[in-house]
Amino acid sequence: MYKLIRKYAELTRISNLPTCWTNVLTGCAIGSIAASQPVAPLRVVILSAIISLFYMAGMALNDLLDVGIDRKQRPERPIASGRISPKAAMIFITVLFATATALLLAYFPHCIYLGALLAAVIVLYDVAHKKTSCSVVLMALCRALIYIISAYAVFAESTRGFWIDTAVASSILALYIGFLTLVARSENKQQIDRRRWLSLAIMLLTPAAFALSLPTTIYPCIVAVILLIILARAAIFVLSEPPQVKQAVLTWLACICLLDSLFLAVLVGPVPAGVAGLCFVLVTLSHRRIKGT
Predict the structure, then answer these.
(1) Least CB-packed of 47, 81, 186, 216 within 10 Å?
(2) At a CB cut-off of 8 Å and minimum separation 6, what does 264 contact?
């Protein structure tokens, strides 16, 4: 049983799931502010489960479509190594997408079109990501849609403030994911050299997170300092010789939680920001057991 769970955990990159949960929490916070009422914790949990299923399906589909390349470059991956058959993987992926869609339809029916868009973008990215670097836009859109779906799930009304806050947060997250993905896609020293500066651009997104509102407490400042220190460490990985891209990418993936923590500290307060901070620790520790990339 352990081996069965382990291979599917590797296939779906479950070590990164807490980054989806904090994305959902941030999106729900934006919707909650627009609605001027708190969000029921159960709704956050259900929405986190739905987004997790979409994420897991996307990761598994990525490996299924890349199995030919992985057999040469990453033979240890579950499908490439033969531990999971392509047929079993396809059935698993279908079940994940179907379950996520059914849950979304059952609990958040007004978000079903956004959910369908997320599923479509995930599939399109998995199909196109090896063919063009422009696919990073699709990856960025996938993450931005988590904010949008979560916010809309809580507050399904069109108001100027709601869409401004959602657009600002989604844009910052999309840029973060886009920059991260570009560096992660660097296949040789020449590409890395051309993209090293993105590690510094990622750091500049931290002050941009304050654009949602002016922080009135010390908590956002504390989170921002911590985030900048860890992002600086990731930048050193990339700027060093030889560049340590994998370590930087894993750090950036975990820092998605800290970016959410900063948003939450600005928008809500220290408690949800602290929850996102704990998710950062969870991702960092999980990467030691299950590869995040």
Answers:
(1) 216
(2) 22, 25, 26, 29, 272, 273, 275, 276
